C-alpha cells in the first residue's frame, strides 16, 4: 500500500512541477518535474528497461 502511495505522490509532484513551471516559465521546475516523472515510471514498472537489475542470459 505504501509503495502505491509513494508512486502516486511522485506523479502528483511531477504534474505540480509541470503546471507551475509552465505557468511561470521556470525551467528548473520543468526539469524537476521530469525527474519526478522518471522516478514514477521506474516505480510503476520495476524490472523493465535499462535501469533493470535483472540480466537476460542468451541461450547457449
Brief write-up:
68% of the residues lie in helices and 0% in strands.
Task: Describe this protein's structure.
- Helix 1 runs antiparallel to helix 2.
- The chain is an all-alpha fold and 60 residues long.
- The protein has helices at residues 2-24, 27-44.
- It has one domain (2-44).
- The radius of gyration is 15 Å and the shape is flat.
- It has two helices and no strands.
- The chain is 68% helix and 0% strand.
Gross morphology: flat
Percent helix, as a range, is: 55-70%
What is the N-to-C order of secondary-structure elements (H for helix, E for strand)? HH
Characterize the main sheet.
none
List the helices and strands and how they pair.
Elements: H1 2-24, H2 27-44
Helix pairs in contact: 1-2
Primary descriptors:
60 residues; mainly alpha; 2 helices
Amino acid at each position: 500500500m505504501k509503495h502505491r502511495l509513494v508512486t502516486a505522490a511522485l506523479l502528483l509532484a511531477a504534474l505540480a512541477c509541470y503546471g507551475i513551471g509552465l505557468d511561470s516559465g521556470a525551467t528548473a521546475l520543468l526539469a524537476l518535474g521530469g525527474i519526478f516523472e522518471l522516478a514514477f515510471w521506474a516505480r510503476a514498472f520495476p524490472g523493465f528497461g535499462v535501469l533493470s537489475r535483472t540480466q537476460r542470459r542468451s541461450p547457449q
